[in-house]
Amino acid sequence: MLIKSLQAKALIPCLDSCFTGRLSMRVVFIVAPGNYRDEELFNSKSVLEQAGVRCDVASTQRGALTGSRGASVKCDMLVGEISARHYDAVVFIGGSGVQEHALEENNTILSIAREFASAGKVVAAICIAPRILAKAGLLQGKRVTCFPDASAISLLRQVGAHYAAKPVEIDGKLVTANGPQSASAFGQALLDVLG
Q1: What is the pLDDT of residue 21?
Q2: Rounded distance, CA 83 to CA 28, Å?
Q3: Please, which pLDDT band fits residue 16 given cuts at 50, 70 and 90?
Q4: What is the model's pTM?
Q5: Which of these, 3, 63, 161, 189, has the minimum number of CB atoms within 10 Å of its CB?
C-alpha cells in the first residue's frame, strides 16, 4: 500500500508538469476571411484546446469569419498583429478561400510563415494551404502532403518539396495534411510535434 501511495505521489508532479506545459502553449490559426474549410479549423483546434493549448484565430479582416460549410468564428486579430515571440506554432487552414482571398500572395502572411520557421517554431498547413508555405520558400527538401490537386502538387514539386500522398506528413517542425478528412489527425500531429 505504501509503495502504491509513493508511486501515485511521484506521478502527480509529472502530470502537473505535463498539463502546465500545455497550458502555457499558444497556437495561432490563420484563415481566409471567407470559405475556409470549417472542419479543418474546428476539428484541429478542438484537439489542441482539449489538451490545454490556447488557440487564437487570425485573418486579413476583422469580425466574423464564415467557412465554406457555414460555420462562423470570431477573428481574434489581424495577421499583421502576429508575432512568433508570442506563439509556439502557426497553422494555415485551407479551403477555396486561400486562393479566392490570395493568401498565398499576401506578403504579410508569407513573412509570418518565414518568421515562425526562422524562430524554430512549428509551422503547419492543411489542404490547399501548403501552397502558402511553398510561396514563402519553406519547402525545399521537405516531405509534405496537401489536397490532391494537380496544380498544388505541381507547385510543391517545383519548389523542391517531396510530395507524399499521405493524410498527414511530419518533417521536423513542419506539419502538413491533405484536407478536411484528416483534420483531427492533423491536430493530433500538431500536438505531438509541440510536445
Answers
A1: 57
A2: 10
A3: very low
A4: 0.89
A5: 3
For 40, the domain range is 25-194
Is residue 151 scored above 70 in pLDDT? yes
Question: Residue 83: which CATH number?
Answer: 3.40.50.880
For residue 121, pLDDT beyond 80: yes
Half-sphere exposure of 136 (CA within 13 A, CB side): 26
- Reported confidence tier of residue 22, pLDDT bands at 50, 70, 90: low
Please give the C-alpha separations between residue 151 and each of 37, 131, 135, 147, 154, in angstroms, as whole numbers.
19, 10, 13, 10, 5
Strands 122-126 and 89-92: parallel
**For residue 121, which of 174, 55, 52 has the smallest C-alpha distance?**
174
Instruction: Give domain status of residue 79, yes or no.
Output: yes
Residue 34 DSSP class: B
CB of 169 closer than 8 Å to CB of 163: no
**Inside any domain, residue 5:** no
In a domain, 18, yes or no: no
How large is the greatest C-alpha to C-alpha distance in the chain, in angstroms?
Answer: 64
**Stretch (H or E) spanning 122:** strand 122-126
2 — pLDDT class (breaks 50, 70, 90): very low
User: Does the residue 47 lie in any domain?
Assistant: yes
- Report CA-CA distances (Å) from 13 to 17, 19, 194: 6, 10, 20
